[in-house]
Design a protein that fits this description.
210 residues; mainly alpha; Nitrile Hydratase, Chain A; 2 domains; two-stranded parallel sheet
């Protein structure tokens, strides 16, 4: 009986990455010492896996692409518009949507720390919190975009938005050509987290590789 239990444990461990194993060990230690409640931790993890994350923002962008009335409301008051969809319980107190156009490309940064619209984009990527991104995005945004593989026409103006604890931003990227007639679900699949920060651009080709 003990042998079978040991075998199952080894099998489970072999399927986890080194990072996942470290997280599992840390969770166990913290729970044993009474610092965290396992049930509460499970709820937090479940929330970020299902209710909070870039898939929320992607659904919002897809809705804005297909519904002119919602797009207008989204640009006017992003917080209120997102809450009207009922897909999140809370959005940052002052979330502003900035729209990319052929004339203007928007990029979001937090120069002081890492303020970020967690409710609709999930956890911020490591690079967003780095000092290199925080400084270069303001001083040389076109070079930063190039580092991310985004090349814009010389005449396209790049506008940088600095997030704060009170005011945060989400980019409404341009809808790619060739997506006419697509469903909201199919459109949402090509909206990346980076495109909602401004360091990426959704393309129709992304759907084929998804």
């Amino acid at each position: 009986m003990a042998h079978d239990h040991h075998h199952d444990h080894d099998h489970e461990s072999s399927e986890l990455s080194p990072l996942q194993l470290r997280v599992r060990a840390l969770e166990t230690v913290l729970a044993e010492k009474g610092y965290v409640e396992p049930a509460a931790l499970d709820k937090i993890i479940e929330a970020y896996e299902t209710r909070i994350g870039p898939h929320i923002g992607a659904r919002v962008v897809a809705k804005a692409w297909t519904d002119p009335g919602f797009k207008q409301a989204f640009i006017a008051d992003a917080t209120k518009a997102i809450l009207s969809l009922g897909i999140v319980q809370k959005v940052g107190d002052h979330l502003i949507a900035v729209e990319n156009t052929p004339a203007t490309h928007n990029i979001v940064v937090c120069t002081l720390c890492s303020c970020y619209p967690w409710d609709v984009l999930g956890l911020p990527p490591v690079w967003y919190k780095s000092s290199a991104y925080r400084s270069r995005a303001v001083k040389e945004p076109r070079a930063v975009l190039s580092d991310f593989g985004v090349t814009l026409p010389a005449e396209t103006r790049i506008r940088v938005w600095d997030s704060t604890a009170e005011t945060r931003f989400i980019v409404l990227p341009m809808r790619p050509a060739g997506t006419e007639g697509w469903s909201e679900e199919k459109l949402a699949a090509i909206v990346t987290r980076d495109s909602m920060v401004g360091t990426g651009i959704p393309t129709a080709a992304q759907e084929a590789s998804a």
